[in-house]
Write a structure and sequence with these properties.
194 residues, alpha+beta, 2 domains, four-stranded mixed β-sheet, 7 helices, 4 strands, 41% helix
Length: 194
């Protein structure tokens, strides 16, 4: 039997669409993640030690340009909102791109762009788990590797390290999240400078 890096729990006391991720102590710190105090036994005693919310900040233009020039992004067959549910896995590639866009719009203080994008994402087009992460992202909440990239683009952190960390996030999620960041930067700044 292989070790599981993260597992999802559906809580009976919460609303039907609430999903909580049980993570190891050194996990990715998902916005809906918890870490058990000890070995997993029922009832679970959990604690949270991270803030999953991305602060609104001004991006550093040089870092944004460097990010865009250093990375090769995987592409989607059409617009991200039309690709929700596209791709294999618990978080399909289309959803990962939308997560990257939602977080970037939030970080840039563009709630209208985030709200409009989230409004066209169809819940029935993807997995319950992935749609839950889209919902969190629409509120500016994401896993730690995604937040690290946002912080780095504002001038706090090492860009190479943030890209490497996010590249290793999930089987393909990190690359597609970065494609979402790229698309959001393009959409947000068609007329405005960073």
């Amino acid at each position: 039997m292989t070790d599981v890096a993260a597992a999802s729990l559906v809580l009976r006391d919460a609303s039907p669409d609430t999903i909580v991720i049980l993570e190891p102590r050194d996990g990715h710190q998902f916005p809906n993640g918890v870490v058990a105090e000890s070995e997993v036994e029922l009832p679970i005693v959990a604690r949270r030690w991270w803030n999953p919310t991305c602060p609104i900040s001004k991006f550093d233009q040089k870092l944004v340009d460097q990010f865009l020039s250093l990375t090769q992004f995987p592409k989607l067959p059409s617009r991200p909102e039309a690709c929700v549910g596209w791709g294999p896995g618990l978080t399909p590639a289309g959803d990962d791109v939308v997560v990257g866009m939602l977080i970037t719009f939030h970080a840039l203080g563009r709630p209208g762009l985030s709200k409009d994008l989230y409004a066209v994402c169809r819940k029935d087009a993807t997995t319950a788990y992935s749609f839950e992460l889209l919902r969190y992202a629409s509120r500016g909440q994401a896993a730690r590797p995604v937040l690290d990239l946002m912080e780095t683009l504002t001038g706090f952190g090492d860009l190479g390290r943030a890209i490497c960390s996010l590249s290793n996030f999930g089987a393909t999620s990190g690359g597609y999240v970065m494609e979402g960041v790229r698309q959001a930067l393009s959409d947000a700044f068609k007329s405005d400078p960073v």
